[in-house]
TrEMBL record:
Enzyme Commission number: 5.4.99.5
One Gene Ontology molecular-function label: chorismate mutase activity
Binding site for substrate: R30, R47, K58, E106
Transmembrane parts of this sequence: none
Residue span, Chorismate mutase domain: 20-110
Name of protein: chorismate mutase
Source organism of the structure: Brevundimonas bullata
Length: 115
């Protein structure tokens, strides 16, 4: 088990990483990946809090699963992925799984607070 202190000692600030094109070693690559993963965790935790808000605001439990909104979210992600250079083969399955897990979280939150 890696201690939190050891993890912190290895960590690279998001602004203190090499651009992918400038990486010369696998240490550079992995420091960049680890830094981005921490940034993504922060963003995903904030996205999760919007699910908490949705569970508080939606009019009823049936509104938690919204297929039209899922289609809209995936379409917007794919539209943003293209100019950003993110492969749709990564973006689409990642977001479909993310939405699926977010729906499960939203149902759990709804049931815990309003069920
Ligand atoms: O937009 C909503 O209604 C949400 O609750 C967000 C979200 C998502 O993860 O993007 C989650 C559940 C819905 O079924 C659709 C989309």
């Amino acid at each position: 088990m890696t201690s939190p202190a050891a993890v912190a000692a290895r960590s690279v600030d998001i602004d203190d990483r090499k651009a992918p094109e400038d990486c010369a070693t696998m240490v550079d690559v992995r420091q960049g990946v680890d830094a981005l993963d921490r940034a993504l965790v922060t963003l995903l935790a904030e996205r999760q809090r919007y699910m908490d808000a949705a569970a508080r605001i939606k009019p009823n439990r049936d509104a938690v699963f919204d297929q039209a909104r899922i289609d809209d979210v995936v379409a917007k992600v794919l539209a943003a992925a293209e100019p950003a250079g993110l492969s749709p083969d990564i973006a689409e399955p990642v977001w479909r799984l993310l939405i699926d897990r977010c729906i499960a979280h939203e149902f759990a939150k709804y049931d815990a607070t309003r069920g």
